[in-house]
Amino acid sequence: MQPTATVLVYSDDSNTRAQVRLAAGRRPAPDVPVVEFVECATPEAVLREMDKGGIDVCVLDGEAVPLGGMGVCRQIKDEVFDCPPVLLLMGRPQDAWLATWCRADAATTLPVDPVEFAAALASLLRQKRLLSV
User: Fold this and answer.
1) pLDDT digits (tens, 9 = 90+) for 79-131
2) How many whole angstroms separate alpha carbon 47 and alpha carbon 79?
3) pTM, two decimal places
4) pLDDT tens digits for 35-67?
5) Separation of alpha carbons 102 and 78, rounded Å
6) Are 56 and 128 in contact (CB under 8 A)?
7) How far is residue 32's CA from residue 67's CA, in Å, rounded to a whole number?
8) How far apart are CA 14 and CA 106, in angstroms?
């Protein structure tokens, strides 16, 4: 059996969650594991899933309402021990400094660009794998 990676996707918009799933596909790069998605539409659902554990990478929508992915990122980085890497989806490339402020490990823009997104997700999965060895 091949190992899998669990990717949490937070967005209040089901279309954004679908874009993430489609951009990543089953495997965002040949050298990373197959991904399984856990979708969350509310910040409370994100916190419940993080409490359960087993999340390898979080993808957070910075444009989500009522609480954007930047706020959720900052919260989980402060509150979750050994927090998994976070990929932040931002509305504008000029907001990259906000990704740094909230301690995101990587950032891409919305709408999701499949090539850019898959590369960023694969990079975080590789880092996670190297850190866990």
Assistant:
1) 999 999 999 999 998 888 899 999 999 999 999 999 999 999 999 999 977 66
2) 10
3) 0.94
4) 999 999 999 999 999 999 999 999 999 999 999
5) 10
6) yes
7) 31
8) 22
Give the position of tokens 């590369």: 119
Q: How many CB atoms lie within 10 A of CB 3?
A: 8
Question: What's the CA angle centered on 110, arms 96 and 31, to 5 degrees?
Answer: 85
Supply 33's token pair: 């594991």
The 3-state DSSP class for residue 106 equals strand
Here the tokens at position 7 are 């990717």
Q: How many CB atoms lie within 10 A of CB 42?
A: 14
Residue type, 124: L
